[in-house]
Amino acid sequence: xxxxxxxxxxxxxGGKTAGLDGFHxxxxxxxxxxxxxxGCAAGHQDLGGMWFDSGAIQMLLFSExxxxxxxxxxxxxxxxxxxxxxxxxxxxxxxxxxxxxHGTDPQGLPDARAWLDHGVWPSAAPxxxxxxxxARNYEFLSAEGNGLHQIPxxxxxxxxxxxxxFRFTANGETIxxxxxxxxxxxxxxxxxxxxxxxxxxxxxxxxxxxxxxVAYSFAFxxxxxxxxxxxxxxxxxxxxxxxxxxERLANHINDVGAICNDASVVVLHARCAHLREQILxxxxxxxxxRLMMDCIVxxxxxxxxxxEGRGAIEQLLKHCAKQFEAVVHVYEEAPSLQDRTxxxxxxxxxxxxxxxxxxxxxxxxxxxxxxxxxxxxxxYGLLKFDMAGRSEGDVDARLMVRVDEVRSSIDxxxxxxxxLERGPIRGPAPALKAGEGAAMIEGFRGDIFIRLxxxxxxxxxxxxxxxxxxxxxxxxxxxxxxxxVADFPLCNKSFNCSYSGHDM
Length: 504
Known about the structure:
The chain is an alpha+beta fold. The chain has 17 helices and 14 strands. The strands form five sheets. Strands 1-4-3-2 form a four-stranded mixed β-sheet. Strands 7-8-9 form a three-stranded antiparallel β-sheet. Strand 5 (80-82), helix 3 and strand 6 form a beta-alpha-beta unit. Helix 7 (234-262) runs antiparallel to helix 8 (266-287).
């Protein structure tokens, strides 16, 4: 294939105003599609997701430098379109998944293997004319060399976690290659949402990945609000932010403890688990659910914060700040712990930038991107916080980014409690109509993206969600190369990618 010239999304937008949701909508021809894909490879913009709707292949592109986001659509006759993956590697798994679900045909896709379909689905995708099913025996990539052996792990693991298969190729204890096989937790969220009313779709979105239920509900609500012009009261905006930061706080503290546990320092794991439990208990007492599931709804929130709840959160923050800093002190003063985490599982900054790796994975490798700061949404435009960041890209850096974000979340919640005003918690519902909306929300793992389209009755005609894990799982494969097998659990926990979020 001849190289296409690279183009930036700003050149296509041409000064046009973005939609209510902040996204430009651009229809392109095949030549421009090639140029945009080459632009991603050249670093002019980042790829944030791909989906198939109304006979068109669509992708999210965004540029933090230009503060611009665009949804680009290309008409794909019979599902055929030029592969973005042949230019830009981060698109490969997205295109493999789309082919499995919709039967699309990305011309020039470098990897022809199935991704989500493990050969056990009852029938081929409707537009897959061949009707052929993927092979049950998945062909892992080969590695050549003397003394190499393979170690298969999963998909069933020794714990209450979701399924995923890891195929290690090693030379003695040194890992030469890791290849993942995911898709075991595929739930068909897109198909389940099709035709659903807004309330049912909101509940499905909240259950895509249970540890990010607030973030997914937040993104879904904002996409619906953009599609219908649904106003959100100021008090509800701050309550949403408080919930989002409580979720971030609980997950980051839990992850710090889990990383220490995989380095055999069990006492720090226990202390962090206890702190997380206290956060969940306060969340339930304030918002009615330990994970605050279904608390963020289109138009606002479903439950208010009572005066005693505000006091409970303030006491929790004071307690967390003190107890967590004690954990951090032990971590920083323990050479045996540092020996396990420093220089282990390095993600190079160039690779993090190429894959637009979000959250602590990207920010630990020098990628200064946080949706709350780059594309601010309510209530973050009214708040002050510093974006956490490191450049070393190892387990230690990913842990320390979490540490900084725990401190930041405590401060952000305090700011929001101070700004919280009396008032309604949900805006009046507008008339149902056809419309389209999209949203990016910073979950604890990174940026979550949702795009949806409503029919004339206000039901979901199309729904697409993209978890940050889609671009983080490939980083784990790269990070573990050259490390020893025994360090994989530690490295894996420092990523803590979501199986369920990926396998939607």
